[in-house]
Specification:
Elements: E1 3-6, H1 8-13, E2 17-21, E3 25-27, H2 29-39, H3 44-47, H4 49-53, H5 64-69, H6 71-75, E4 79-82, E5 86-96, E6 105-119, E7 122-133, E8 141-150
């Protein structure tokens, strides 16, 4: 369920709160191949299902940066900030990929709004995120994302 806030003052009140869990998102071989085409990273562990089946993961896996990029659509299911003029991805404090995402898997995001800090003209939020793989024993990604919202 999406948490919707109207403006920066309401956003500040959410600091330290759990944002919840997104819906599951399919990570298909087609999505992996499209990402490979977009980035030029055609390493066999991602795009050659036959060879990858014999590789260290037993199947093709998503690029780590594909998994990271899926944070955005998953996060938009958790928090919707209305009443601001601009929303900007500001960066990341840390990212780790503890477990691979195999083609055909489903992932979801568990998010926590760790901090809301004032910046000139708006606020910067820090979100602690864990991207889980359905049935996985370890997270696919653990990250701390920074976004800015301007009034």
């Amino acid at each position: 369920m999406t948490v919707t806030v109207n403006g920066i003052d309401e956003l500040k009140k959410l600091a330290g709160s759990e944002l919840g869990t997104s819906a599951w998102l399919d990570v298909t071989q087609e999505r992996i191949d499209t990402f490979a085409d977009a980035t030029g990273d055609h390493q066999w562990i991602h795009v050659d299902p036959e060879r990858a089946a014999e590789g260290p993961f037993g199947a093709p896996i998503a690029h780590g940066y594909l998994t990271l990029s899926l944070f955005i659509p998953l996060f938009t299911e958790l928090l919707d900030v209305q009443g601001v003029t601009t929303k900007v991805n500001y960066g990341l404090n840390k990212v780790r990929f503890p477990a691979p995402v195999k083609a055909g898997s489903r992932i979801r995001l568990v998010g926590r709004l760790a901090e809301v800090a004032e910046v000139p003209g708006g606020v910067q939020i820090t979100v602690d995120g864990t991207i889980e793989t359905e049935g996985g024993s370890k997270p696919a990604a653990v990250l701390q994302s920074l976004s800015r919202f301007y009034a």
